From TrEMBL:
<keyword id="KW-0723">Serine/threonine-protein kinase</keyword>
<dbReference type="InterPro" id="IPR008271">
    <property type="entry name" value="Ser/Thr_kinase_AS"/>
</dbReference>
<dbReference type="InterPro" id="IPR050108">
    <property type="entry name" value="CDK"/>
</dbReference>
<dbReference type="GO" id="GO:0000307">
    <property type="term" value="C:cyclin-dependent protein kinase holoenzyme complex"/>
</dbReference>
<dbReference type="GO" id="GO:0004693">
    <property type="term" value="F:cyclin-dependent protein serine/threonine kinase activity"/>
</dbReference>
<keyword id="KW-0547">Nucleotide-binding</keyword>
<dbReference type="InterPro" id="IPR011009">
    <property type="entry name" value="Kinase-like_dom_sf"/>
</dbReference>
<keyword id="KW-0808">Transferase</keyword>
<dbReference type="GO" id="GO:0005737">
    <property type="term" value="C:cytoplasm"/>
</dbReference>
<keyword id="KW-0732">Signal</keyword>
<protein>
    <recommendedName>
        <fullName>Protein kinase domain-containing protein</fullName>
    </recommendedName>
</protein>
<dbReference type="GO" id="GO:0005634">
    <property type="term" value="C:nucleus"/>
</dbReference>
<keyword id="KW-0067">ATP-binding</keyword>
<dbReference type="GO" id="GO:0008353">
    <property type="term" value="F:RNA polymerase II CTD heptapeptide repeat kinase activity"/>
</dbReference>
<dbReference type="GO" id="GO:0010389">
    <property type="term" value="P:regulation of G2/M transition of mitotic cell cycle"/>
</dbReference>
<comment type="similarity">
    <text>Belongs to the protein kinase superfamily. CMGC Ser/Thr protein kinase family. CDC2/CDKX subfamily.</text>
</comment>
<keyword id="KW-0418">Kinase</keyword>
Amino acid sequence: LLFLLQSFLWQILRGIAYCHSHRVLHRDLKPQNLLIEKRTNTLKLADFGLARAFGIPIRTFTQEVAYLCDNDLAAVVPTLEPAGIDLLSKMLHWEPGKRIHAREALQHEYLKDLGVVP
């Protein structure tokens, strides 16, 4: 199960990195917008209705409510190994400019056994 979850995270990050390399922001990543092929466990990003190109002015916030608090991630996800906690904390940093980029996340130790990013 852990390998499958890591694989899904890796595929999501690959999709995000692809979008960003084409200067597209998805802006609505959530479980309902992920398509999973059950037979192969292949994951695809879906619903680009809120997507925008880099540089096109957008409101800072959408209608979605985001709440981030200073949680101890190890307490929230007690079975996650330290490398996973590290990656998660870098992905959830409250300052967008300090968050790990998708390409960097793909190189993180937590995902090291899942493949090489071209």
